[in-house]
Specification:
The protein is of the alpha+beta class. It is built from 10 helices and 11 strands. Strand 2 and strand 3 form a beta hairpin.
Length: 393
Amino acid sequence: MAGETPPAVREHMLSPSAWNRYETCPRMYWLSRQRLPRKAGMAASLGTAVHASIEDLLLNDYSNIGNQQDDWLPEEALRVLKLRWEEEKEVFMNTPRRPKWKEEKWKEAIKQQRGGVIMLLDHVGIQGLDHKRITGALWRKIQKHAIAVEGELKTKDGRLMGRLDLLLADVNDAGEMTGWLVADLKTGRTPDKKLKTEVNRQLRLYRDILLDNNPNAPKVRTEGWYTQNSSKWPAIGENVLEQAYAAWQETQPTTIPMEPTPGKDSCGGFCDWKAWCQHWWNWRHENGTLHKDDFSDAVVLLHEFDSNSGSAVIELCEPFDGGIRAIPTGIRKSAKFDDRGKDALQEVLASKHQGPLFLGSIMTAQSTWRIGHWCDVLPWKPILDGVEYIREN
């Protein structure tokens, strides 16, 4: 209509995670930008809650806690963690594409939060202190070391960005600042001997953006802080800005799907977008690994389904015409949809979808295949190669 303001065009930006995804497979990266249904995950939700609670502890005003007052932090830490836990749970449960929320992971979240506090204490030179003995004065000392907490880090031109967990001051024995520390909180598996290549590069990119934005900055070092066992892992290496800008150029938005790089790391590994990509299916079929793993992805036809018990009969399909068409094989399997897997199937059926289904991570070890809460159940809708695709707003 006349007079309406057109929607603002978002400038292209590249984050470390998007860069990693592009290097794994350009098609995977492209699909991740098409506003397709995203999948919630328990590990990611736990990590977000833990990170946010640690950041809250650093940002909150605790001036009401006396200098010598102790035995306050454990209760306060649980309070802020519970708030963040419930926030994440609400987001998780409102995400249609999700597994089951695992309330039993609460104890792990508490442990990981404590791991973060241990590393903050270590940063100011204190090890082995019972958290009940942390006084108001000590915590305010830790807070004063925090230069920035949970902020968006961008290059001056806005092309490269990342989420900065903690920027802390390195201070000598005389109380003088000697440098900056970029600390990235990690709730995942602790590295074996050194940081993974992609994590090392992520942290170096944060370092290099900081230095580029602040020419007079002091020495900057970067560490991955793994809350699982309170270990710190330095990121060391050359400047990566030139590489990052080259990747930014290569990842310019396009309505034509980017080319895939089929292989073990992309088609044979983790990818959230297989329901819209035929190339993993072709790759699996061509190398003889389709339906061979204990947890397998499949494109199937649904022949029978009992909505009460979740029992079903599915027919396996194979790719034809480059994977765009699904050809029934005549091989039928007994299947059991349960928990969130059953709910997801009923949601697809209620949408009036007709045709093949994508089932992700089916448990195939038994004669009856199990599609549980961890599985994807989605309409099979591969996006054509070389054809313009207009994403939904």
